[in-house]
Amino acid sequence: MKFDPRITYALILALFLQTAGGLLWAGRAMARLEEVERAVSVQPEVADRLARLEEQIAEARRSLTRIENRLDAR
């Protein structure tokens, strides 16, 4: 294989290593993105459950207040 004399093997090696590094970086970025997408897809379900739990706690507090008021009235 014949190269232009201005192109050295070190330059070719450097380009190869940079390309390999870029591909590795892209692979890791894709894996992180997939993980974030999985986490976000679960969020609506968690938010819905949290809203129901907050309402149940509020109702329990209202019931506790009514019970305390009845006990204080005796």
Characterise this structure.
By secondary structure, the protein is mainly alpha-helical. The chain has one helix at residues 9-73. The longest helix has 65 residues, at 9-73.
What's the quick description here?
The protein is mainly α and 74 residues long.
- The backbone outline, from C-alpha atoms, is rod-shaped
Radius of gyration: 31 Å
| SSE series | H
Number of strands: 0
Number of helices: 1
Describe the main β-sheet briefly. none
Query: What are the segments in which pLDDT stays under 50 over at least 5 consecutive residues?
Result: none
Summarize the helices and strands and which ones pair or pack.
Elements: H1 9-73
Can you give keywords for this protein?
74 residues
